[in-house]
Amino acid sequence: MHERISAGETSFPGASLAELGDAWRTLAPSRISFVSPTLLDHDLAAVRKLIDAGGYRVETITHPFMPGQPLSHDEASWLAPRARLSRLIDIAQQIGARSIYLLSGGHGGLDWEDAAAAFCACIAPCATQARSAGIALAIEPASPLHADLHIAHSLRDTVQLAEMAGLDVCIDYFACWTEAGLRATIERAAARCAIVQVSDYAYGDRAYPCRAVPGDGAIPLRRLLEWTLAAGYDGAFDLELIGPRIDREGRVAAVARAAQVVGTMLHELGA
């Protein structure tokens, strides 16, 4: 597997630590990523044992910062999510994770600018903590179908929110590949890009989750990879493969094939 490819836990939803360990031993990545409940709700010693056994670098952690909770200017509503993220930052530092990327919290009844201001105020102490710990704290674009969880539904809005909050960016090609002016937005994002997520979309899929193995769909991945590398991004590319297509093929087989396709593209592009 190409050294810059990360095999993410997001591709193995519901897997136990033992099942993750088996998958990663088969795939042999140098970089892996976690979902935050695995780290927050399990024995950290077992997680560290898994990491050490494979000699993995923990590239990133995905975290639903305020799951199902709308953004609000009520500071009391921030306390529990902020405390949980603070604990995750400590854990990330302990296991050597490079970044955490998150969803902001839902729109609720606020307009975008007001919701963004609430998010910036809410996240500020955690942003300071993450910088001190050497952890990139990032936000990603997500479909409007996740409006109960997030307010940034394009890469442009994600970069704007990150700039407002003093955070980094996760570029998810699946969520942004159809945007106008995408190359310019990738160039704008590159200086604060912490992680890039790679998957594909097949025309005709209408229900989430509906990701496809890179190369099986319509996303012009080689072009997006080329733009991202040309913009100066030198980090990892995390595979996030979920949905019926992945389940039918088998998760390990799908990730292995994705790693081969993306790795070939990266080699050809000189990465």
TrEMBL record:
Q: Name one Pfam family in it.
A: AP_endonuc_2
Residue stretches in coiled coil: none
As one GO molecular function, the record gives: isomerase activity
Key words of the record: Isomerase
Please give the InterPro entries that the UniProt record associates with this protein. Answer: IolE/XylAMocC-like (IPR050312), Xyl_isomerase-like_sf (IPR036237), Xyl_isomerase-like_TIM-brl (IPR013022)
Xylose isomerase-like TIM barrel domain sequence ranges: 35-252
Q: Does the keyword Isomerase apply?
A: yes
This chain's protein is named Sugar phosphate isomerase/epimerase
